[in-house]
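sanity check both lines:
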Amino acid sequence: SIRNADSLRAIQICNEHPYKMWKINKEFIKPLKKVFFSNQPSYNCQKRIFPEIYIQNASMEISKVSVLEKYKTITGKKIIPFYQDKFRSLDINTPADLEYARYLNKENKIKIEKILKKPFKF
């Protein structure tokens, strides 16, 4: 139940599935995960047959103080998902991410708020 949760973390559907990911081993590539569907390696299969996978985003993390003290981490062991769609879960880490956010703002898909120059006072 929610009352027993240690923390909450915002997540969204992951577009890139781990069953289609590769790692480089010298001059060749190897699948990140060796998973088979009907005797076929997952990288040869259509993504629609895979289980849904979620990725965390940086929009929200909430934790109990007791979890920080007990586990020395912000998440603990029982994490509640907070589902978000692509437009509400922008994580700006690159110039391309910022350009995409500006485009969404221009198209009225999101609203970018101005950042105050002075910090809030409580």
Summary: The chain has a mean pLDDT of 89.
